[in-house]
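1st attempt posting a full record on here, be nice pls
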Amino acid sequence: MKTQLDCLPCFLNMALNGIRKACPGQDDVHEKVIREWAKGFAEADLSESPPSIAGRFFRMTAVHIGDVDIFKDQKDEANKRVIELLPKISDTVHNSEDPLLAAMGVSIIGNYMDCALMDKFDWEVELEDLEQDIDRKLFADFMERVRAAKSLLILGDNAGEIGLDTIFAKLLRAEGINVTYAVRGSNILNDATVVDAEFVGMTDICEVVTSGVDTPGTVLNRCSVDFRERLKSAPVVLSKGQGNFESLWGVMPDVFYAFKVKCPVVARLTAHPMKTSLFCREN
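the predicted structure (as tokens):
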């Protein structure tokens, strides 16, 4: 997905939110970073994906603040809240008519745990309707392919969300399906890393690997060589979250996507309204 002009103000909001958390009260640093990002817009190649550009800008910011996990508190809070609710949510999923479909609904709702948007959406309220909007025929086709291959590579997205993904991963493992879950290679926004995978217990359920990226999405040229080979050879790939969608849509064929539509740009591109629980594949 190419970056749109509407993405640029969103970048600035992310930068300002992040730098204020990292350097509270240091207005001079805040101004320097925002000016640097704004200047970078003039040189940005909008044919790149939003996560690719955002990742480059955050690397510039690291020069001023060092290697700081800016959203660590938010990530920890999201993970802990999910762990608290997981037994109840798991019971709801297992007692549903189609537990795998319900687990996918939970997994998509978890995509609302986005540091740039958490104050706009209440993921816990949405748990009352797990299967809303999901294309059931496409999901059935997806599960048929997963069962035939007995293998699935999941590209994870946010902290907190990864905890809800454990429900889906456990159900697949119970069917003897080999699940691999990929996380970011370094701290970026509130995206999940190996630390989060260990905290929520994903490492106890399936193989967890790092994609190597330092971007808020699976940007292929930022992935490690080993992971690109793993991605290329995976019989079925499930891309979780809007950041991964933005990185891979129009770039990598035959990927299944599961995420919440959270911005007008993606709503226009997918022809689905904001707040949709979208399960799709690029034709």
